[in-house]
Design a protein that fits this description.
- The structure is a single chain.
- α2 crosses α13 and α3 crosses α4.
- α11 links the parallel β8 and β9.
- The radius of gyration is 19 Å and the shape is globular.
- The longest helix has 26 residues.
- Strands 1, 2, 3, 4, 5, 6, 7, 8 and 9 form a 9-stranded mixed sheet that branches.
- It has 13 helices and 9 strands.
- By secondary structure, it is α/β, with parallel strands linked by helices.
Length: 318
Amino acid sequence: MIVMSAVTALVLLALVTQVGIVAVQRAFPPQGRMIEVDGATLHVVDLGPREAGLPVVMLHGASSNLEAMRRPLGDILAEDRRVVLIDRPGHGWSSRARRQDSTPQIQARMIDEALHKLGIDRAVFVVHSWSGALGARIALDHPHRVAGLVMLAPVTHPWRGGVGRYNEIIATPVIGPLLAYTITLPLGYVLAESGARNVFLPQTMPDGFVKDSATPLLLRPREFIANAHDLVTLKEAVAAQVARYGEISAPVTIIAGEPDKTVSTNIHARPFAAMVPNAKLIVRPGLGHMVQNAVPDLVKAEIETIIGKIVPAQAAAD
């Protein structure tokens, strides 16, 4: 009797999840175009004037999608510049063929290919959190593509501990998909608001952020599993690339806060800045993890500063 009740409950939760997937995807449809690359289809939103000098490419962190970078920062930048926002492979409306393609190295290759297809030879990359490791990897493996790098609360180094027991379970074969396709979406609807508020601390989460950032897309099973794989493989991935950071030749600006309860500035931003030859570190007291939301004007100013240094240097080289 207990087994039958459990099976019935799982079946009902699976049906609720399927209905929820349809509802979420109708509420947050894709806003851009799809670009096929080796191993993935990437969703790209292209904003702003095409002729306005160096474009800006924006890459979001874990548990999110390109809308987390678009509002307000991407929209502000697009008033003056071409801004390309990309859903990382497996996130938002981007797919990836293999869940194992979760590392910065593989995703860097996919993004490089997408930019080539867009006709973008060089760009300034603005990366947040998980994508700190990705931005660093693009600068290492595809240096011709990176004119400059602006990193917001970036992950760059190995850290003590894990990434949460639930992510580890979701990344486990059989058990993980079983949970993802039954309880994750209904449970996530209950917890999404409070979880997002915690990431903003000590800042206050803007009203409507969960909806405006299309955060519920994360609760779809295939994306939730992809996100878990990204997180559980990240420590090993950054450990493998950390010794190479001194090779990064592009100008880099890192903006981080204290206290950032999500990504430690002392473990990541400060050591990274010390290793990269052309790095500028800005640490703001009282600033939390969502740098692009808390201080968008500062981020824009630093992007313009870095472009102001790149363009004369490029002209002199030509």
